[in-house]
Amino acid sequence: MGLTRQYLRYEPAALFGLVASARAGVAFVALRGERGRYVAVPACEHVFVWDTRKGEKVLILKGLKQEVSCLCPSPDGLHLAVGYEDGAIRVFNLLSGESTITFNGHRAAVTALQYDHLGGRLVSGSKDTEVIVWDVINESGLYRLKGHKDVITQVLFLKEKNLLVTCAKDTLVKWWDLDTQHCFKTLVGHRAEVWGMALLSTEKRLITGSADSELRVWDLTYIQEVKDPDEPESKKSKGSSSPGAEENTEEDETLELDEHPEERIVKCSKGGSIMREGRDRVVTLGTDRMGKFLACHGTDAVLEVFSVLSEEEIQKKLEKKMKKARKKAKQNSEEEPEKSVELSLQEQIQRVTNVKASSKIKSFDLILSPKGELKMVLLLQNNVIELYNLDLSAQVPQAVRVSRITIGGHRSDVRTLAFSSDNIAILSAAAESVKIWNRSTLQCIRTMECEYALCSLFVPGDRQVIVGTKTGKLQLYDLASGSLIETLDAHDGAVWSIALSPDQHGFVTGGADKCVKFWEFELVKDESSVQKRLSMKHVRILQLDEDVLCVRYSPNQKLLAVSLLDCTVKVFYVDTLKFFLSLYGHKLPVLCMDICYDGTLIATGSADRNVKIWGLDFGDCHRSLFAHDDSVMYLQFVPKSHLFFTAGKDSKIKQWDADKFEHVQTLEGHHQEVWCLALSPNGDYVVSASHDKSLRLWERTREPLILEEEREMVRVASF
């Protein structure tokens, strides 16, 4: 038996660069006896609890592999129910941060969660169109309610009655009697999907939000169920069915309700509508816990806040109106003004203000503080949490932004990553900023504004960084001061790639203007100070026939590999810029490549999903590997070895052996496309950036990895 090569396993070490995922909702949680200060937000598979006053992360509720799709805090504030993409629900204790209960019953992502007012029952709705009621105390499922034909969007318990209201994308709102576990009423007054609903005025009103700018208001009258003792059992049960087979059409149910008014528990009539200012669909519709305020938002950046008058306030308003009407009647010598005096719906549900956020809103939560202030937390699309206060005692209430959590991440996707030479600092750059992170603490230590970044590197000495942008500029930053030192117009198109020369005296860039440019570092006199500062000097240019996508030096600095838009990789001599080799075979452009430490191999990753390994002496293709299920976005060799990592649009990171042409390991964790990765100079760390807004750090362990065992585990997992 031949010798087997020993590989070391890379394990996930941390998730950072993420403030909040926009997938699920945001919720105020009670922590350390305070309400309105701490908010829970989804963060890929975890849930983060942020202190909005200090802007610090105080708790991480660790998930497994699946992404969080829904959140709901318990009424006592001690627990948080979290729904996941695979249909699982876990209930976390907020004091310990541990998961105490797990419910498995849905076949697809959980889309709606709600506790009853005592916190003993939990109801969940899912993409699988089913609603399940769970017993939290006994940690068991109570019953499954079937009847909707599309994704459930909202579920609500009624406090006084043992009833449940659900709405879905099938345009229906269904009422369920939980004593008999069947649907007894279906509202069919919507033309499009029902995206949200809320109960108001001590549950005497239901308000629904659909795909238009109209919030429909339904007046509810609860009728005590009267049963005729002489009525046959079969007639009584007509229209109801077992929980697993509620297949009646909406028309049938409505007809039956009209035929049997004694079976009706709730009378539901259209009470009018409130017009929103937004023209698009309702994304989230909700109230505060007391039901005094209603808020909603569409796919834009405006949150519309309404005030709901209580019974006493309505009575006071009516009395005022009556007085006015009596006065008028006296003047006009009329009688009985009482009959015509009533409050319109717009007077009972009044618009308070509109809150304009800094970006598109994905979800919100409201809480009325004891001081009489309305606190609103907004989760935005661009990785930001904003907290607003609304002073209700003011004549014209205006929302004031009191805090904004942004420092922990970029506003847009990270397109380039780099490690410092001492393995300690990580650079990440996106469309609006460059951030420097401490690898061990994962704290952001510098944030510098930039243009749309595409490539980057640490200047030798790790005191400056260079960023190549979409507009063709090279931006040089000083890390000590966090300032932009110099901007050069390097290319006429995007700077797609940058590579440091092995002698560390300069670097090379490749751009969309079909040029490869060579640059050297130089010290120039600064007008403002006595000391010299670093600058970049353009020394040579190599003109090509196609756009340049990637450039790489060989370690001995004799060869330069250039990937072109015509799907080939051309290799040139660095000293004379003469053509040496052409590597052709990919069906689509080569997006990434790297040359190993001894200069014998070059690996190329392409949009055709393949990785090809070539010899650099003759340009022969050693092997072509089907690497990912989508484009290969980044490729880098592990220092001092022939192992390399690839990142793909299929959200996976894979390790390969370039000598044995074997797949070594898959690093799974990201939930969307992986744009780039970087390996630390000692090979112990990998950092990756994805479209899910997260940065992930992977660490090389001392645990050996046996390929046969890995493959066996994959086979078992696939069954």
UniProtKB/TrEMBL annotation:
Domain of life, per lineage: Eukaryota
Q: Where is the composition biased (Acidic residues)?
A: 247-256
Please give the InterPro entries that the UniProt record associates with this protein: Quinoprotein_ADH-like_sf (IPR011047), TBC1_cilium_biogenesis (IPR051570), WD40/YVTN_repeat-like_dom_sf (IPR015943), WD40_PAC1 (IPR020472), WD40_repeat_CS (IPR019775), WD40_repeat_dom_sf (IPR036322), WD40_rpt (IPR001680)
Compositionally biased intervals (Basic and acidic residues):
257-266
Gene Ontology MF annotations: snoRNA binding
Provide the residue intervals of the WD repeats.
61-102, 103-144, 145-186, 187-228, 407-447, 488-522, 583-624, 625-666, 667-699
PROSITE patterns from the UniProt entry: WD_REPEATS_1, WD_REPEATS_2, WD_REPEATS_REGION
Keywords recorded for this protein, A-Z: Coiled coil, Isopeptide bond, Nucleus, Phosphoprotein, Repeat, Ubl conjugation, WD repeat
Which residue stretches, if any, does this entry annotate as coiled coil?
Answer: 308-335
- Keyword Coiled coil recorded: yes
Q: Which family does it belong to?
A: Belongs to the WD repeat WDR3/UTP12 family.
Protein's job: Part of the small subunit (SSU) processome, first precursor of the small eukaryotic ribosomal subunit. During the assembly of the SSU processome in the nucleolus, many ribosome biogenesis factors, an RNA chaperone and ribosomal proteins associate with the nascent pre-rRNA and work in concert to generate RNA folding, modifications, rearrangements and cleavage as well as targeted degradation of pre-ribosomal RNA by the RNA exosome.
Please report the name of this protein according to its UniProt entry: WD repeat-containing protein 3
Source organism (scientific name): Pteruthius melanotis
